[in-house]
Specification:
144 residues, alpha+beta, 8-stranded antiparallel beta sheet, 8 strands, 39% strand, elongated, disordered N terminus
Length: 144
């Protein structure tokens, strides 16, 4: 292995999220997520930069939360059914992406603002878009 390959491998390793035991998560972060989502029975924790990422299911739908060490929740993402999509977003998808199929649909709350992110596929490509509730394309980044 060359030196450059070692540097790339080391950089990749340290830039990834890493799994955490609940005992490794600050109590303010744990309590904040449990208070907002008391129905979350099993929570998987990861460290994502300076934040803590909690993943769990509620009623069979995936949820992801980003919270800081002080317990401030900055992002919430939850799987969504197509039937739960606001009419304006549904209309925008049908109007602007005819011929695409909705593959993945999520409701994202960032600092109190609600967005709908969708992965659309056709035979040639996959497109990721984020919409505001009024059906306009939002300028926020798609959250993987």
């Amino acid at each position: 292995m060359t030196l450059s390959a070692l540097v790339i491998a080391a950089t990749s390793f340290f830039s990834c999220t890493r799994d955490l035991a609940p005992t490794d998560v600050p109590s303010l972060a744990l309590n904040s997520v449990k208070a907002k989502f008391p129905q979350a029975l099993t929570i998987d924790w990861e460290k994502a930069g300076d934040l803590f990422e909690a993943e769990f299911e509620v009623n069979g739908l995936d949820q992801t939360i980003l919270v800081d060490a002080n317990g401030t929740i900055s992002k919430v993402k939850q799987d969504l059914l197509v039937t739960d999509l606001p009419a304006a977003v549904d209309a925008a998808i049908k109007r602007d992406f005819a011929g695409y199929v909705v593959d993945d649909l999520e409701k994202v709350e960032i600092n109190g603002q609600v967005y709908y992110q969708v992965e659309l596929e056709n035979k040639l490509k996959t497109v990721e878009k984020v919409f505001a509730a009024d059906g306009t394309v939002a300028t926020v980044a798609y959250w993987d």
